[in-house]
Amino acid sequence: MFVGCWNRGSELPEGQQAELEEGMAYKVDCQCYLRKNVHIWFFGELYNKKELGYGSIDDAETFFTLYDLKGIQGLSSLDGAFTCVMKTPDSVLIVRDRHGLADQVYYTDKYFASSLSLLTLTKGFEATPDYQALSSFLSIGYIATPCSAFSSVRKLGAGEVLTYKDGHMESGPLFPTDAIIPVSSEEKTLEAYAEEYAALHIGAIRKRIGESSNVGILLSGGYDSGCNLAALRSFYNGDIRSYSIGFKGDNWTELPLARCMSETFRTIHTEYEMDGSEIKALPALVEQLGDPFVEGGLMVNYAVMRLIGKEKPDVILGGDGNDQYFGTSGREVALHYLISRYGMKPIVNFLYKVLDRPAFDKDASPYRIRFHLDKILHILEGDLFGFPTFRLEKLLRDHSFLYSFPHPLPDMRSFEYLYTQHNYKTDVEKIINQVILFKASKIADMFGNHLVFPYMDLDLYMFLMRLPVRYKCKGDSVFRIAKGDVTAKYLLKYHYQSMLPEAITVKKKQGGFAPMPVFFKDDKQRARIADYVLSSSLVSDFLNRDYVEKFVVSYDRESHEAGNWFWYKQNRAIQYFNLLALSVWWEKFVKQGNQFF
User: Fold this and answer.
1) What pTM value is reported for the model?
2) Which of 192, 312, 449, 511 could form a disulfide with 444 if both were Cys (CB 3.0 to 4.6 A apart)?
3) Cis peptide leading into 146, omega within 30 of 0?
4) How many Cβ atoms from other residues are within 10 Å of residue 324's Cβ?
């Protein structure tokens, strides 16, 4: 936790500081370093100090040394989970690690802080909502950087540097992705690539667990967590505590697969089945996350971090982000490329526009067609779970609140170029940095768990930048990939398949998110949620009450219907969850209350 001011004369919130110096107040573990009139506060940890040749000094001094020798760009060689604040007599520099695994940074023209709650306590804070940002949340489940839920507040993105000097602020990326292109030729054989990848993966785990003999791991029953466990067991013979989450009454539960992994690699296994009552923790999650945030795995992360309890491993391995590092949505990328290349995009766009209206927003074939077309046509915009624009127009009190999403221009030079663009601009910059790892790391911090992500290693990142697309997304041709005849994460599976139980390797992965209707399944709980949402001042201040009431009535009716398509039910439940989360956020941050059922 920290809160600071750009100018030293500004007044910090009373009662917050455990340590106070040079216009910074902080409570959590922090490494401080002072040299040449430069003061550094380093929050988090570095993983590659030894590799950089700085194993004998602490993280804060390593940061300063690199900056002093090579400037801002020298910091791009740091691999870790950290937020660092550096003050000189006339400037302030704030740096976040490549994926934003440590403290978030919210800032105004006078103050900066590691949480939105802390920032609201600063003198003169203006609690004016950014209505367009909030409408974007209702569509996609988060507010993209640099915006925040308040019009006076900005957020520093993952892997970015913020500089302040003479009243002027400027931010920019340490890891730009605009110029990344697919490799044009293969440097090695498939076997050589696989061996290098395996060595880097094991090295990433070693760097993160250090000399610990008390290691934990999150097991989902899929390749990512399974490969982490297999790699760990290749050099570590001590006790491993594993944790898995399932869902009561859910046919898709992967708990049996997680148990299979536990038995194969000899872990001390603990599991928990969610029943929907976990939604009562939403106020605490809202405060922890800051801006409104909803994602299919939100409550899964909460449940597993709570499950770990007081007997904590020194370090816990998570498999998050590996899908996105290799690249997702290969089939949709191929379909987008083909319909564009063969002149079919205007026709498909026309069909989408016909279906993108309220008349077809019900569980039937037109809905399913629109669902898939949405992913294909908007390949660079990420998943748009939540309210579509035609619903937002009725949901919002004022159409000026509507957020206009940017439409990036697809790189159509080849399938490989489009796949690579999607890989970095969507998978990494949006899904990894602003959704998956943000959520997982913040909830781990909420419970004091030391969660690390070996797949997010800098050396693995650099290796995958050199890997041909066909070893990330394997298919005989673009046409075959478009038909779904494709193997994602091909190199990982090529190396690890023989090490994992067959039950894992032959089953299609379903985990990573909760079946969201579970939180609205119980009639009494759903009634309490409806009462809370409809009584919230959000409905009168920001939303159209009549339309919210119609949504609630419609959801109640559909909750008793059997046979609806999974993704229809999932999307509707996410919409309801978005309404609830925004209501909780509004009462907490705008109305300064915290009432919940």
Assistant:
1) 0.95
2) 449
3) yes
4) 24
Q: Please state, in angstroms and rounded to a whole number, the distance separating the CA atoms of residues 209 and 399.
A: 51
Domain definitions of the chain by residue range: 2-173, 190-279+292-326+413-505
What is the CATH code of the structural domain delimited by 190-279+292-326+413-505? 3.40.50.620
- Element of type H or E holding 41: strand 38-46
Report yes or no: 253 and 246 within 8 Å, Cβ to Cβ.
Answer: yes
Give residue 216's identity as a one-letter amino acid code: G
DSSP letter for each residue of 317-347: E--TTHHHHH-S-HHHHHHHHHHHHTT-HHH
CATH number for 2-173 (one of 3.50.50.60, 3.60.20.10, 3.40.50.300, 3.30.360.10): it is 3.60.20.10
Which residues, other chains included, contact 222 with Cβ-Cβ below 8 Å and sequence gap of 6+? 254, 257, 319, 504, 509, 511, 512
Q: pLDDT tens-digit profile of 341-359? A: 999 999 999 999 999 999 9
Give the DSSP H/E element, type plus range, for residue 370: helix 365-377
Using CA of residue 381, residue 551, residue 534, residue 281, what is the dihedral sign? negative
Bridge-partner residues for 5, per DSSP? Answer: 111
Interval 470-514: pLDDT, tens = 999 999 999 999 999 999 999 999 999 999 999 888 876 555 678
Least Cα distance to 281 among 447, 527, 406 occurs for 447
* Rounded Cα–Cα distance for residues 402 and 126 (Å): 22
